[in-house]
Amino acid sequence: MIAGLYYSGPYPALSVFLFMISVTSFGYIIGRLRLTTGSVWPAFFLHASWNAVIQDVFDASSEGENVLFWTGESGILVALALLAAAWFISRSPMSVRRL
Q: Fewest C-beta in 10 Å: which of 36, 38, 79, 93?
């Protein structure tokens, strides 16, 4: 991202920071899904669906000069939405399903 070789917004340092928030939050969500279901498949399908939405739907429906600043993988809205989702999910008790 800093070198400009990865999809990033107009401010590389901010993009790296926001991307780390997104990746950490999404990692928590996927990890919790894996532990609560006892299977890797729901996490697999969530990650695949997320990639389709973030790379196809968001990119196709967003345009403008600073669009990556808001909706890209390192966008502000994406980072805030994932952080809020991870926080919301973390509020409920977790039961680990063992196989």
A: 93
Please tell me what DSSP assigns to residue 5.
Answer: -
d(Cα 44, Cα 18) in Å, to the nearest integer?
23
Q: What are the pLDDT digits (tens) for 27-58?
A: 999 999 999 999 999 999 999 999 888 877 77
3-state secondary structure of 23: helix
Which amino acid does the sequence have at 11?
Y
Kindly tell me the sign of the dihedral angle through the C-alpha atoms of 8, 10, 14, 18: negative
User: Alpha-carbon Rg of the chain, whole angstroms?
Assistant: 15
Residue 53: CB partners within 8 Å, gap ≥ 6? none
To which H or E segment does residue 52 belong?
Answer: helix 41-52
